[in-house]
Amino acid sequence: MNIKLAVRLSRVFFHLVFGLAICALVFPWAGAARRDQSIRRWSRRLLGICGVILEPQGEPLAHALVVANHVSWLDIFVINSLHPCRFVAKSEIRAWPVLGWLVAQAGTVFIARGNRRDLRHAFKGLVHSLEQGERVAFFPEGTTAAQGALMPFHANLFEAAIDAGVMVQPYALQYLDTKGALHPTVDFTGDITFAASTIAILSGAAVHARLVCLPALEARGAHRRELAADAAEAVAAALAR
């Protein structure tokens, strides 16, 4: 292990410890605004340690159902560094060392693949959160996809925006190198482990995370399949640009 990687790993470790302390000592007594501020700052610091430079485009809505393509474990922290959300994520994320617990403390709802009971529970929670004015996000592909590819968007959770009467805002995520090409170390697909992905990112060159907040879609009166198709089309067009 080279010195640069060892230093970065130690910084990540101490930042995770700091995050644990915030969740244990601050979150139980903090209001929503302070929690969001803490999540935003912590996420930005994590990205900085990992050599990730955030490049946001467009305007995020303060109250919406956010849907984005899914590339890496970095996605949650890239989005949270801009405007924290209550996430719906696959249950495997809960098993990530330390980070899984941290994202759970930030209000993430975990769903097991193919578990209809989890899906119904998550759906009710999403509608309630949206009706309370919270900002909710999920990855409708259901899993990560290699950069340059976009998997079909599952429509089920789009129904939450319809029931709550809120807009759906698609986000397009790309991770680029200094030359503007797709970054080679960010993909989190196949058999790669969380640890191996983390080491690859920390060992590599700087990553430019381009997060494009696209025009929102009206959910009132729409069908969830139409919303999913329109969101996927918007994200695909943004990625192609």
From TrEMBL:
Name the GO terms of the biological process aspect: phosphatidic acid biosynthetic process
In Gene Ontology terms, what is one molecular function of this protein? 1-acylglycerol-3-phosphate O-acyltransferase activity
- The secretion signal range is none
This protein's species is Massilia psychrophila
Q: What is this protein called?
A: 1-acyl-sn-glycerol-3-phosphate acyltransferase
Pathway info: Lipid metabolism
Q: Where are the transmembrane segments?
A: 12-31
Which SMART domains does this chain map to?
PlsC
Q: Where is the Phospholipid/glycerol acyltransferase domain?
A: 64-176
